[in-house]
Amino acid sequence: MRAVLLLLLAWVAMSAPTPASAQRFNGNYPVCLQTWEWGGGTYISCQYSSWEQCKAAASGLSAMCLTNPYVQERAPEPVRLPRPR
């Protein structure tokens, strides 16, 4: 009886609905679009180089624009001093 109860409990725990979060982070673009899908899931796509691009893509959707948390900022260019002659 305990084995059946444990098996049933394990099956219920594994089949419980959990919101899936499909995310595509790209370190090259500074702005992400987060959209909410039917059923409670979210989708994050980081493929926008400006806030205006993201706002245009979010227009009419249940979405918002975010700063990419994984953006890889470029290192500053080293200062080159003139060589003495």
Indicate the radius of gyration in whole angstroms.
Answer: 23 Å
Count of beta strands: 4
Largest sheet: 4 strands, mixed
Q: How many helical stretches?
A: 2
Strand content: 25-35%
User: Mean of the pLDDT scores?
Assistant: 78
Strand order of the largest sheet: 1-3-2-4
Whole-Å distance between the termini? 92 Å
Share of helix among residues? 25-40%
Uncertain ranges: none
Give a written overview of the molecule.
With 85 residues, this protein is an alpha+beta fold. The chain has a domain at 17-67. 26% of the residues lie in helices and 26% in strands. The protein has two helices and four strands. It has helices at residues 2-15, 51-58, and strands at residues 21-24, 31-36, 42-48, 63-67. Strands 1-3-2-4 form a four-stranded mixed sheet, covered by helices on one side. The longest helix has 14 residues, at 2-15. The chain is elongated and about 90 Å long. The model has no long low-confidence stretch (mean pLDDT 78).
How would you sum up this structure in a few lines?
This protein has 85 residues and is an alpha+beta fold. The protein is built from two helices and four strands. It is elongated and about 90 Å long.
Distinctive features:
26% helix; 4 strands; 2 helices; 85 residues; 4-stranded mixed sheet; alpha+beta; single chain
Write the layout of secondary structure elements.
Layout: H1 2-15, E1 21-24, E2 31-36, E3 42-48, H2 51-58, E4 63-67
Parallel strand pairs: 1-3
Antiparallel strand pairs: 2-3, 2-4
